[in-house]
Amino acid sequence: MLFARLTRFAFATSLMAATALGIAACRVSQPQGRAEGACVDQCKTKAQSRCNEEACIRGCRFILDRLMEHEGSGIISCVAKGPHKECDDRAWATCAASVGIHADGGPPAPASAEEE
Length: 116
What we know:
Layout: H1 2-26, H2 34-46, H3 53-62, H4 64-68, H5 72-81, H6 89-97
Helix pairs in contact: 2-3, 2-5, 5-6
């Protein structure tokens, strides 16, 4: 009987700890690198009417590859004034795909089997 109670207590305790860790993992943490930090600062300045700090951190992480291509400023301007009213993943993705070398949409799709 005592063993059953201890087992239930241990299970409940580990479940609560796992839940707490899971919730903490979902939070957006502070920027890690220089490019990401500069992006967040620029986003908080340029896009303050649409983006809060958490959305800026998430968006700058979302476009990290484009930050390495030095396209962050154009993307942030697009997020601030672009077609989307909210500062969500869709806005960041749309702007990242419409700025710089990716603005032309990329190469044409390969021909289908019927066309060959």
